[in-house]
Write a structure and sequence with these properties.
Region (Disordered): 45-85
Number of helices: 7
Number of domains: 2
Number of strands: 6
Subunit structure: Part of the 50S ribosomal subunit.
Helix content: 25-40%
Radius of gyration: 27 Å
Distance between the termini: 13 Å
GO cellular component, one term: ribosome
CATH class of the largest domain: Alpha Beta
CATH topology of the largest domain: Ribosomal Protein L4, Chain: A
Order of helices and strands: EEHHHEHEHEHEH
GO molecular function, one term: rRNA binding
Shape: elongated
Protein name: Large ribosomal subunit protein uL4
Amino acid sequence: MASVSVYNMEGKEVGTIDLNDAVFGVEVNEHLVHMAVVQHLANMRQGTQKAKTRAEVSGGGRKPWRQKGTGHARQGSTRAPQWKGGGVVFAPVPRDYSFKINRKEKRAALKSVLTSKVQGGNLIVLDELKLDGIKTKNFVAVMNNLKVQKGLVVIAENDTNVVMSARNLPDVNTAAANAINVYDILNAKTVVLTKDAVTKIEEVYA
């Protein structure tokens, strides 16, 4: 089992914790990680892009000039794609970009990125994260004590004080242990887990 240090909110080491190898010590599968990231980004796409084809733009009902004898190329409508104001060839239409990957593959990808953070020394365990109120300054102080700049803070359950205090920080995200995803973990330079969050993740994914 991998053993990592446990810190308090002042940034001082207060002990160690053994991480379950079934979650934090697996073989990293880059292919599954890539699939999980592509799926996450695809599922975030709105798919509301729309442009009009020549059948949908208004006007152009009359033939602009006779077929022969003018010296111009023959034209049937002023709303054909080659005309200004004409329709778009193969115009994009609203569509759903989302797709699914198997649950086992998604779990394996999540374990892979958690393992890579442990191996890279970019995972910090906090004994607890308790804030008296919603105060961004207090949350920033904790992050500074831990020397975390671009990070993901994972807590066991949704804590309004923590989530709201971190909401205005552009480089720090928060997530509940049961709502973490591969993209957010990869996107963070440092992952901060509370001890309760570690326990919950190991219960769910071990």
